[in-house]
Write a structure and sequence with these properties.
It contains 9 helices and 9 strands. Helix 6 packs parallel to helix 8. Helix content is 39%, strand content 18%. The chain has a 9-stranded mixed β-sheet, with helices on both faces. The longest helix has 25 residues. It has one domain: Carbamate kinase. It starts with 8 loop residues before the first strand and ends with a strand. By secondary structure, the chain is of the alpha/beta class. Uridine-5'-diphosphate binds next to helix 1, helix 3, helix 4 and helix 6. Belongs to the UMP kinase family. Catalyzes the reversible phosphorylation of UMP to UDP. Keywords: ATP-binding, Cytoplasm, Kinase, Nucleotide-binding, Pyrimidine biosynthesis, Transferase.
Length: 239
């Protein structure tokens, strides 16, 4: 089990939904709590990169259903992720953690551009790097971007923080009371059982490049810290 050795560097994917505490906009107490847990892990010695979604502001596909042009709506979605990055940056710095936001869309006053080697350097210095604006490309998701950024910045694992579920189950635990949670799972088993863990592009990036994925519930006390520090939590998906 890869989790018996602590990670050197990891990428944490947080959904925008979590940042909103279930509503549109930001729930400061949620962001502060997440920041505190990331700070604890950084203190524990792990290098951390973060990708934050933007579902608490806009999702391109939803705006499209309400009549907007998809690509413009997707750019709105990406801009939403940047607001989440700034919120996380603020609360991390309140915890005494140095941070850098790197945006896939140029916005010099707000964030550095995405420069992978510089991101690695930041992490080596103990800074948390927060990647914003997704891939900078419409029709992509922040799940896919999190796998890509984890690979390009040489992270040991992709950690997917979930709300309302604490790992990968054999069936939807909300719909099927007989569903059981996997402690470990292979990518092939996930495919064979039709389990939708992350979107298909993110899944195949991890599988093809042998990047371990940990899917865990972010609600329990200290869960994010535990996942970042490589403790056994949630479901480990590997080749
Ligand atoms: N988005 C995009 N390209 C990307 C990443 C995100 O177009 O590379 C847009 C897309 O519209 C998406 C929105 O940004 O709906 C918010 O991201 P996502 O839905 O992945 O956030 P989450 O569900 O994790 O909160």
């Amino acid at each position: 089990d890869a989790r018996n050795t602590p990670f050197k560097r990891v990428l944490l994917k947080l959904s925008g939904e979590a940042f909103g505490g279930g509503a549109v906009g930001l729930d400061p107490s949620v962001v502060a709590g997440i920041a505190r847990q990331i700070a604890d892990a950084v203190e524990g010695g792990v290098q951390v990169a973060v990708v934050v979604g933007g579902g608490n502001f806009f999702r391109g596909a939803e705006l499209q259903q309400r009549g907007m042009d998809r690509t413009r709506a997707d750019y709105m979605g990406m801009l939403g992720t940047v607001m989440n990055c700034l919120a996380l940056q603020d609360y991390l710095e309140k915890e005494g953690v140095e941070t850098r936001v790197q945006s896939a869309i140029a916005m010099q006053q707000v964030a550095e551009p995405y420069i992978p080697r510089r991101a690695i350097r930041h992490m080596e210095k103990g800074r948390v790097v927060i990647f914003g604006a997704g891939a900078g490309m419409p029709f992509f998701s922040t799940d896919t971007v999190s796998a890509q950024r984890a690979l390009e910045t040489k992270c040991d694992a992709l950690l997917i923080a979930k709300n309302g579920v604490d790992g990968v189950y054999s069936a939807d635990p909300k719909a099927d009371p007989t569903a059981t949670k996997y402690d470990t799972l292979t990518f092939d088993e996930g495919l064979a059982n039709g389990l939708r863990i992350v979107d298909a592009a993110a899944f195949s990036l991890c599988k093809e490049n042998k990047l371990p994925m940990v899917v865990f519930g972010m609600e329990g006390p200290g869960n994010i810290t535990r996942a970042l520090l490589g403790e056994k939590i949630g479901t480990l998906v590997t080749n």
